[in-house]
Each structure stands twice: as C-alpha cells, then as structure tokens.
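Q: Got a minute? One more chain.
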Amino acid sequence: MPAPSPGPGGSPGQLRAGRSAAALRWMRGNPLSVAGSAIVLVLVVLAVAAPLLPLENPVRMNVARRFTPPDRGHWFGTDHLGRDILSRIVYGARPSLRTGALTILLAGGPGVFLGIAGAMAPPRVAALVMRLLDVLMSFPPLLLAVAVAAALGTGGRSIVTALTVVYLPRIARLTRGIALAVLTQEYVTAARALGASGRRILARAVLPNCVSVVVVQSSLYFAEVLLAEAALSFLGLGEAPPAPTWGSMLYEAQKNMRNAPWIAIFPGSAIAFAVFGLNLFGDAVRDAMDPRLRT
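A: Always. Here it is, folded:
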C-alpha cells in the first residue's frame, strides 16, 4: 500500500521549516525582539572576546588608586583594592553566561527524558518518577540551590549542579504536561489504530512538540538562572576570590556604597541589563513560536 501523500501543506519537515522561517521574519520585524537579541549578542560577544579586548587585568590590585571615581582612565572607576570595575564586569559576564548555558543543557536533557517517561512509561514507573520530582519541587528554589551548593562547596561547578537540581523538575513537569496533551490528540489516536508503534509516536509526535516547548521555556529560564547565579555568588558560594563575578562584586561593594556608590551601581546595572535583555529575548522567542501571541 503506498504511503499517504503529505498533502498540499507539504511534509512535516517542510511545515516545521516554514514555521521557523516565519518566526524568524517576525522576530526581525519586532523592535523588542531586535533589542533583546542585540543585548544577548553583546553579552555573548563581550564574554567570549574579553581576553582580546583592551582591558586591564581584572584581578590586578593597585591600592594607590583605590576608590577612583569614573574617569577617562577607568570608565566605571575602581574598587576598594584598586581593580578596574569595567574589566571585572566584562569578565564577570563569563561565569554568569556559562552557568546559565550549562544549567539549561544539563537540566533540559534529563528533564525532557523524565517528563516523557512520566507520560508514557507504565503507571508505576511514571508515578515513581513524578513523586521524586515533586519532592524536589516542594522546596523553595533558592533555598534548595543554597543547600545543594553549600553541601558541594564553593565554585562554579557547585552552582551549576545546584541550579540543575532546581530546574530539572520544572522542565520535567512541563514536558510531561505537553506529552500528555499530545497523546490525547486525534492524530495520535488514529496512528495507534493504524498500528503505529510507541517508538514511532514518540519520535514523530511527542518528542518534537516537547522539545519545541522546552526550548522556548528554557530561553525564559535563562534569565532566572543568571539572577540565581548572582544571588549565590553574593552569598559567597560562587567562584573563589579574586575571580570576578557580578554577585561577589555586589557583596564586596556593600561596605563602601556610601563613599563610592559606583562600585555597586555598575555591577547591579550589569545584572539588570542582562536580565532585561534575556527576558526580552525569551518573550520574543515564545511569541515567535506561537502565532496566537503575535500582535
């Protein structure tokens, strides 16, 4: 029996490619989308190219020039040890973006797997998986991250592990909800009636829908992860001094904010700027992937 024709709309791959092209065109024509994308691009370029930029060594101390206000030589001024704040902010973007990317990757893969398992596995296995995820989600996110990071010790790896533990159950629950919704669709029921195997349904229907939604949601989670990384670094759980991180810079600035407010204003502004740009970018990705949300 010949395979059914894909119809006038084209094959599923062609339809997905068409939707992706339409989403990209919409993002290019939306001012907020362009602004968010530009901010994210600037952050990534600065973080990657930091060693190539004409910046001072971010850990070099010069006590003679401590608390220098912003001027031509030091655009963002210097801190209590005479270190250039602009250089430390640029280099501080590297651990923040690295933590965000690793957290999303490490939480996304297992999260999608566990979410699909919670929807398609035998009832006992699915119940066990979901109860374990419920235990993790019963703790306040920041408190759980602090507990895990404190147990593992300070450093970037500890923060990545802690935030992965926080966001993995979120992604798994999201994936399970999408998978359950897809499995109730009429075309899936028809495919089962025609003898399609569970693997084929998983590969052709469940997995593509779940991955697309997780990608959109992950773009929104990225800003949350960056803010959480700054909070953990502020609490002393991030990179060990003198490595620059935005959170640790704010912690060091709190004792001298009255005499030298710029040592807190610029790192705080960098965090706000990054979170604002990532939120704009995440909202744009969400709206572009769902035509119903476009205005």
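A: The chain is about 70% helix and 0% strand.
Q: Perfect, thanks.
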